[in-house]
């Protein structure tokens, strides 16, 4: 073939209306027979392939589909089953596969962690001395399926050996090379069988190349790919990278593979610079990722075409493949089904299917000449301009405020030790004050009431009354439990980002814009499409009401600017940091309004602060500086007496303790149950000297903790932390827990606090 080809890197699994999720959950619940389940899943898989074929994609990925996670798929293909699960060799059963992912009564699930800098989570393979074996050639199986059933000559996608081992655990760093070498013959066998089958192209994903990698690791790459090339010289391997530029461009393009896949969207221009500086080998193809696989905006085809032309100056067209920058796993499937969005916004969106359309258009344009895609280019420019010129993106007040950020004080009035004194005076809290993280159980009943209200079956007044009754009930429960600092319970919120998104200008919500987060769990991130601005108080009514019922302090509860940013699809016509500052200014107003209305403790949650860390370490500092600034912009205008809290969870915060300190919150509560005490040591080394609550029990399980357990956790923390600064709280919000277990667990926690106080 002598023309410019189009390709896809990976397609979402979940189905246009989450059919995949529904099938999985029914199967797990025993409501769907295995056979029927597998049948439904096959339909989803094949219809996704068929769609790509109809779109005109030349290289259609196969084997990227998964029943849970592609890293787990790779692990089970090599028979890597942790010994706590039943397994006696051979192909891993469907049941065992799900057990590893989800755990069983007797065996905990494998750990789950974030896939690079995305919100997708993969199952961490456990190597632990298990000798890998090729128990199933998945890529081959999916290749054959697509060929036989749809007459598609697919491009098998495989997670590469270096990245796979790098993402696994259960070995020492010094064993890295040896372990990778255990896998090489297995990969070689896969490739050989693909070669025998007559497979043309294979995509081997090595996203680890987009991180900062060492010389030794680079040498491992060289060695591995030499061996794979020798094993199957006739399959054309595309070594695929994504999410960032590659640091070792010259070495990577010299590896013995037939194609290199580079991300030209999230590379900060560095892949293009390298391409122009060092050229590109004449005997390889370049798979150029130029359509954003991570965001949902329509591509400006004019700009994309120019980018392609620049690339084509270095790489001849017959060696050029046009594709999305990464797998489309990270975006929803299609804009087509959306019925409630503003037309203006809808026109400016592009989900997976639309992205593939853009890919095909660009490949065709490059082949046949720009004039042949003039209409498509014009349509994209028009849609993007219309959104850019709309009132939503031209909010003068917001833009002026952003221009004049220096007029906003982004530091507290006084230093922490001064605030600490006035706050002590003001709140008169006991030593080791007890509190919770914000939410109380969102029971079936709470959800039902909200749904009815949304459907219009419940009036605003009735719904409000219901929420008030819940608040009152829980203020009484908290009083009875003897907690020191109370919360209103967040009953009016479905989700900590959605709630604020619905109240602030600049956000819209899709109907079907779901993306996989982990396993069958999907999230529907809000779209931040316009200037974000404050419209009206968002949390004041509920908080004020809660405070009116008690003499104890009630903490106001907000979601921080960085978490809102990181859990949304964010407009890309201005910088993310500017968007964060817009959100921060709106929250600042809310903080001030709460304060004016007598709320003297305000918690601003930032659980997602670590998630936004750039892949390359050299970029961490600028991200963290911006994150700290946005948080402070939101929180520092209050008086010294007002106590600012923050809360973090879901990740390992050891590496960013300096940034956490720089937030200058008066009190921070952090999840510890998943950090195995390492966090405490980290805080010890850094002698954190502001208020701190290290979660004293894990809220992820319904089990009620014992007095001894909680006491042990408190004592362990007090060995390193100043008791005058220590708070006692659970790990995270209690939204997902039941009522009885929550009350029981909090009673134990309060008891443990009281006993400890007496001992001190
Ligand atoms: N305040 C929120 C809650 O309690 C915090 C949630 C979170 O940390 N993810 O639910
Ligand atoms: Zn939390």
TrEMBL record:
Zn(2+) 1 binds at residues 647, 649, 671, 732. Pfam families: Meth_synt_1 (PF08267), Meth_synt_2 (PF01717). Binds 2 Zn(2+) ions per subunit. Binds 1 zinc ion per subunit. L-methionine binds at residues 437-439, 490, 605. Residues 6-314 form the Cobalamin-independent methionine synthase MetE N-terminal domain. One of its GO terms (molecular function) is zinc ion binding. 5-methyltetrahydropteroyltri-L-glutamate binds at residues 18-21, 114, 119, 521-522, 567, 611. InterPro entries: Cbl-indep_Met_Synth_N, Cobalamin-indep_Met_synthase, Met_Synth_C/arc, UROD/MetE-like_sf. The active site is at residue 700. Its cofactor is Zn(2+). One of its GO terms (biological process) is methylation. L-homocysteine binds at residues 437-439, 490, 605. The keyword Methyltransferase applies. Keywords: Amino-acid biosynthesis, Metal-binding, Methionine biosynthesis, Methyltransferase, Repeat, Transferase, Zinc. It catalyses: 5-methyltetrahydropteroyltri-L-glutamate + L-homocysteine = tetrahydropteroyltri-L-glutamate + L-methionine. Zn(2+) binds at residues 647, 649, 671, 732. Its EC number is 2.1.1.14. The keyword Metal-binding applies. Belongs to the vitamin-B12 independent methionine synthase family. Catalyzes the transfer of a methyl group from 5-methyltetrahydrofolate to homocysteine resulting in methionine formation. HAMAP family: Meth_synth. NCBIfam families: met_syn_B12ind (TIGR01371), PRK05222.1 (NF003556). This is 5-methyltetrahydropteroyltriglutamate--homocysteine methyltransferase.
């Amino acid at each position: 073939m002598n023309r410019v080809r189009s390709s896809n890197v990976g397609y979402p699994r979940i189905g246009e209306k989450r059919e995949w999720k529904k099938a999985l959950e029914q199967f797990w619940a025993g409501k769907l027979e295995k056979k029927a389940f597998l049948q439904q899943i096959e339909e989803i898989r094949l219809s996704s392939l068929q769609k790509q074929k109809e779109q005109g994609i030349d290289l259609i990925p196969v084997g990227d589909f998964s029943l849970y996670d592609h890293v787990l798929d790779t692990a089970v293909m090599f028979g890597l089953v942790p010994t706590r699960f039943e397994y006696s060799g051979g192909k891993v059963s469907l049941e065992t596969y799900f057990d590893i992912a989800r755990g069983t009564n007797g065996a905990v699930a494998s750990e789950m962690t974030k896939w690079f800098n995305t919100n997708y989570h993969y199952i961490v393979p456990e190597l632990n001395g298990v000798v890998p074996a090729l128990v199933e050639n998945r890529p081959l199986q999916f290749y054959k399926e697509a060929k036989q059933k749809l007459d598609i000559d697919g491009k098998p996608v495989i997670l590469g050996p270096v990245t796979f081992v790098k993402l696994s655990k259960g070995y020492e760093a010094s064993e890295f090379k040896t372990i990778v070498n255990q896998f090489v013959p297995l990969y070689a066998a896969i490739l050989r069988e693909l070669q025998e089958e007559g497979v043309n192209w294979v995509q081997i994903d090595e996203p680890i190349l987009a991180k900062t990698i060492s010389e030794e690791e680079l040498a491992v790459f060289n060695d591995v790919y030499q061996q794979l090339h020798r094993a199957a010289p006739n399959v054309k391997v595309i070594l695929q990278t994504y999410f960032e530029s590659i640091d070792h461009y010259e070495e990577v393009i010299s590896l013995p593979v037939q194609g290199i896949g580079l991300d030209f969207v999230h590379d900060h221009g560095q892949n293009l610079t390298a391409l122009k500086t060092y050229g590109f080998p004449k005997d390889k193809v370049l798979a150029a990722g130029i359509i954003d696989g991570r965001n949902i905006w329509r591509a400006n085809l004019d700009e994309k075409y120019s980018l392609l032309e620049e690339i084509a100056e270095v790489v001849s067209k017959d060696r050029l493949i046009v594709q999305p920058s990464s797998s489309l796993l990270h975006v929803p499937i299609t804009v087509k089904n959306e019925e409630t969005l503003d037309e203006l916004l809808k026109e400016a969106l592009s989900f997976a299917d639309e992205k593939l359309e853009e890919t095909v258009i660009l490949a065709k344009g490059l082949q046949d000449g720009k004039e042949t895609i003039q209409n498509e280019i014009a349509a994209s420019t028009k849609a993007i301009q219309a959104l850019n010129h709309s009132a939503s993106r031209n909010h003068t007040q917001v833009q002026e405020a952003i221009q004049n950020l220096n007029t906003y004080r982004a530091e507290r009035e006084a230093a922490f030790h001064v605030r600490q004194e006035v706050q002590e005076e003001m709140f008169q809290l006991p030593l080791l004050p007890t509190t919770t993280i914000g939410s109380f159980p969102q029971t079936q009943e709470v959800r039902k009431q909200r749904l009815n209200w949304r459907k219009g079956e419940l009036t605003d007044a009735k719904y409000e009354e219901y929420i008030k009754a819940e608040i009152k009930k829980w203020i009484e429960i908290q009083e009875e439990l003897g907690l020191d600092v109370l919360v209103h319970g967040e009953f009016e919120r479905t989700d900590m980002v959605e709630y604020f998104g619905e109240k602030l200008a600049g956000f819209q919500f899709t109907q079907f814009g779901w993306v996989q987060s982990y396993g069958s769990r999907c999230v529907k991130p809000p779209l931040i499409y316009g200037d974000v601005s404050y419209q009206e108080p968002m949390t004041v009514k509920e908080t004020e009401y809660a405070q009116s019922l008690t003499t104890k302090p009630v903490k106001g509860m907000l979601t921080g600017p960085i978490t809102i940013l990181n859990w949304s699809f964010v407009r890309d016509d201005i910088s993310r940091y500017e968007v964060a500052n817009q959100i921060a200014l709106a929250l600042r107003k809310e903080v001030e309004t709460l304060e004016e209305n007598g709320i003297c403790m305000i918690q601003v949650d930032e659980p997602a602060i670590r998630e936004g860390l750039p892949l390359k370490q050299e970029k961490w500092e600028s991200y963290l500086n911006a994150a700290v600034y946005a948080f402070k912009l939101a929180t520092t205008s209050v008086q010294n007496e007002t106590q600012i809290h923050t809360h973090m969870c879901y990740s390992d915060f050891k590496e960013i303790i300096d940034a956490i300190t720089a937030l200058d919150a008066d009190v921070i509560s952090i999840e510890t149950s998943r950090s195995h005490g390492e966090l405490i040591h980290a805080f010890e080394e850094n002698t954190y000297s502001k208020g701190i609550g290290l979660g004293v029990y894990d809220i992820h399980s319904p089990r009620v903790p014992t007095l001894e357990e909680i006491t042990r956790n408190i004592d362990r923390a007090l060995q390193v932390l100043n008791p005058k600064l220590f708070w006692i709280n659970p790990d995270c919000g209690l939204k997902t827990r039941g009522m009885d277990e929550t009350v029981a667990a909090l009673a134990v926690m309060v008891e443990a606090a009281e006993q400890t106080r007496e001992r001190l």
